[in-house]
Design goal:
Protein name: DNA-binding NarL/FixJ family response regulator
InterPro entries: CheY-like_superfamily, NreC/VraR/RcsB-like_REC, Sig_transdc_resp-reg_C-effctor, Sig_transdc_resp-reg_receiver, Tscrpt_reg_LuxR_C, WalR-like
Shape: globular
Number of strands: 6
Structural class: alpha/beta
Largest sheet: 6 strands, parallel
GO molecular function: DNA binding
Domain HTH luxR-type: 161-226
Keywords: DNA-binding, Phosphoprotein, Transcription, Transcription regulation
Order of helices and strands: EHEHEHEHEHEHHHHHH
Number of helices: 11
Strand order of the largest sheet: 2-1-3-4-5-6
Distance between the termini: 45 Å
């Protein structure tokens, strides 16, 4: 496979055995390669090659600086460009507050460490494509938790954000609302009687117009601008 098509992955986890297992799994794939590792958040921030990764697998609980703080520092507003690294936060706890904190910090995904290997690999590919990954058992509860918090920030949504939403076509606005409800491309395609390719095109246009990194950020914008209400 051409080097330009290889997904560059970075690992941030304080357990060497866990990193070794992830490294072996990822490097066994023809379309992935581990390019950087760090044992904690501070080490991650001091590792320049981490910023060259397409996807970062980030443990949520680490000494010195946890995964949420590290994600927030890595993806500060000045660095949240669409071509920057995307973070999947990993934890052994299926707890909503961790998921919510990860999403608010800018993570594109949230996955349990005991997820099957194929699920983790597919999550890396999914996030690299610009889609969001949240553990299925967590998705609905997470949206319910996010709703009242994000509703409070509706009034703070700036005019440019509102203008971006208003620039969406009626069909894009419809797809945008379904994204905010947590629906996948196949679900949206089935509900709107469209092909998945057409839905993917609409999603791409929506993310571009909103200046959103991925679907997770689009969901946040949907609640902030009142497109979706709790």
């Amino acid at each position: 496979m051409a080097s330009g098509n290889i997904i560059k992955v970075a690992l941030v986890d304080d357990q060497l055995l866990v990193r070794s297992g992830f490294r072996m799994l990822i490097n066994s794939q023809p379309d992935m390669e581990v390019i950087a590792e760090a044992g904690n958040g501070r080490e991650a921030l001091a590792t320049p090659s981490l910023q060259q990764a397409d996807v970062i697998l980030m443990d949520v609980r680490m000494p010195e600086m946890d995964g949420i703080q590290t994600t927030e520092r890595l993806l500060d507003p000045a660095k949240k460009a669409a071509d920057g690294p995307k973070v999947i936060v990993l934890t052994t706890f299926d707890m909503d507050e961790y998921a919510l904190s990860a999403i608010q910090a800018g993570a594109s995904g949230f996955l349990l460490k005991d997820a099957p290997p194929e699920e983790l690999l597919e999550s890396v590919r999914t996030v690299n494509r610009g889609d969001a990954v949240i553990a299925p058992s967590t998705t609905r509860r997470l949206l319910n938790h996010m709703a009242p918090i994000l509703k409070r920030s509706v009034a703070q949504a700036d005019n440019s954000l509102m203008s971006a939403v208003e620039s969406l076509t009626p069909r894009e606005r419809e797809v945008f609302g379904l994204i905010a409800e947590g629906q996948s491309n196949p679900e949206i395609a089935e509900g709107l009687f469209l092909s998945e390719a057409t839905v993917k095109t609409h999603v791409g246009h929506i993310l571009a117009k909103l200046g959103a990194r991925d679907r997770v950020q689009a969901v946040v914008i949907a609640y902030q601008t009142g497109v979706v209400s709790p």
